[in-house]
Amino acid sequence: MPTPTAAQTNAVQGTVAKGYEGVREAFEATFAEERAGHSAQLAAYVHGEQVVDLWGGPGIEGASLTGVFSSTKGAAHLVVALLVQEGVLDLDREVRHYWPEFAAAGKEHVTLRDLLAHRAGLVGADAGFTLEELADDRAIAGKLAAQRPYWRPGTAFGYHAYVIGALTGEVVRRATGRTMQELYEERVRAPYGLDFYMALPEEQEHRFLTTQPMDPTPAQTRFLQENAPGAHSLSGIAFNLNHAVPTVLEELPNHRVIRAGGPASVGGTASARGLAGMYAAAISGLNGKEALLTPGTAAEFAQIHSAGHDLVLGAFAAFGLGFGNMSADRFPFLGARAFGHGGAAGSQAFADPSTGLAVGFNRRRFAFREDNHAQVTRLVRALHEAASI
Fold it and tell me: Do the Cβ atoms of 54 and 12 come closer than 8 Å?
């Protein structure tokens, strides 16, 4: 990476490669739009070479770690993609083949492909989960094995927000004898030296920054209140609002039990470097090591399997297998096989094989979704334009 430039406006630090100066300008501009106290990180690789490494705002460094919520799903399903690539898992085999107890209450014909495409209808449990259960994928899987789906599997799709990693993780555990967290550490994080932990070790706690609560405007507060889901709606069940102690989403990574357990749906901690580095490792290779995925495997998992009205989110969504299809759902200027996953607080991470671009964005304060999406879209557009020259 080149040395830092002299201009360090808006407390932005770090470096960009030649040709990526516009990315730095776009990142600096986001700080002018945010209230005081905003902090964020942005990193990117092209064909395995780092081209952007930026951070700014109070209290944050380039190596700081924050909770990345559902961006964790990308790490989990990279493990699944590897196992499918190696023939250990079969996407079209029924889940009961690996996990016999799952074949209950109308789920006997659900395939691994159905699970990964959010088509199983198993978005939560009738009584919800305790915090300790949410931190433990095996506890979630144990409850869901007997649970009746909320729609007939395969007839529709809806975001399995807190549980998809536990469901696919139980398939992984039954097939390999290893947990998703163990395989991610051994096959992905450690070999590639990634600052993206599914389960955060105690010795890394000093680098962790708690997620700050959203700071909404009065208009945003009204919007959130008027659009809050009912506790027993599909969205309420998916986000565990139906439990006697409803989950407060923005507080999840601030609980050590979540960070330590590393639930595969929501429990990861990372820097932007780690988010981008994982996707660089997936499609291009990193630090002298080969790409984790073949082009064929990457295309299979990016291919759209569910698109349209998401029954949980109540809006349009487009999912591949365990990943979102980023071109169809978020960034239409990207390649059709761009795949990745964002997180609730505002993190975003993906790979675009058409340009070799791998991106990680992370922020500390929980975002108002629409504002964050507009900001991240400008950042990703600037990155895409620079990478396409």
Answer: yes
